[in-house]
Hints:
Blueprint: E1 5-9, H1 16-26, E2 29-33, H2 34-47, H3 55-64, H4 79-88, H5 92-109, E3 114-119, H6 122-126, E4 132-137, H7 140-153, H8 160-176, E5 189-192, H9 197-209
Parallel strand pairs: 1-3, 1-4, 2-3, 4-5
Helix pairs in contact: 2-4, 7-8
Amino acid sequence: MKNILVTIDGPAASGKGKIANYLSKKWKLKHLDSGVLYRKLALGIIDEKINFNLDKELKIFIKNYKFNSFKSQKKLRTEKVSKIASKIAVHKFVRNHVNLFQKNFVGRFIKNHGFVIDGRDIGSVVFKNADLKLYIDVSLVNRAKRRYKQLIDTNEKSIYAQILKEIKLRDKKDKSRKISPLVVPNGAIVIDNNGKFTQTIKIINTLISKL
Ligand code: C5P
């Protein structure tokens, strides 16, 4: 086990989660998927019928929301949750709430544990001083193809053209928002994940072994 902090940023469906999962097992790091936190807020908004277009209503909901876990669940992966998550992620007060949770959580364990954290702004905003910052790059078409296959494999109905459109839309939202847009963080290493997973992790494992 290494007491290191590794950040992984990248666009939707770039394989960040799969890479982070693998690295957490291989290097015995705690895995924090920041997307799950935005998704949990989105699910809470749906369950509690919050009108997220009303700033005042959304602010009260966020202020009172306590993250009790950040486990990924199937119900967090629906398109409806994805859409609301990326809509609310544009607000500073939403991002501050998520970032505070992440910082407290990591702060509590970092003395005895290493971390791998994935998201959109982890190396650029939340943990700028991480030991290793990665940015995962995959073409839009490859991301849409992989997401489509994932959904088909889990017996979910899906239409390729629709998936492509939705990923494009999320890219636009993530990259063009004023606060913490998706960028290649300063000092990050760009990893091409268009090829085989084994090739990608070989490169990353080499980088980690040098830390
Ligand atoms: O990574 P995932 O697709 O699960 O994230 C869901 C949504 O949450 C993203 O589309 C993005 O808008 C938002 N997000 C973010 N910053 C992060 C992680 C996720 O804005 N660090």
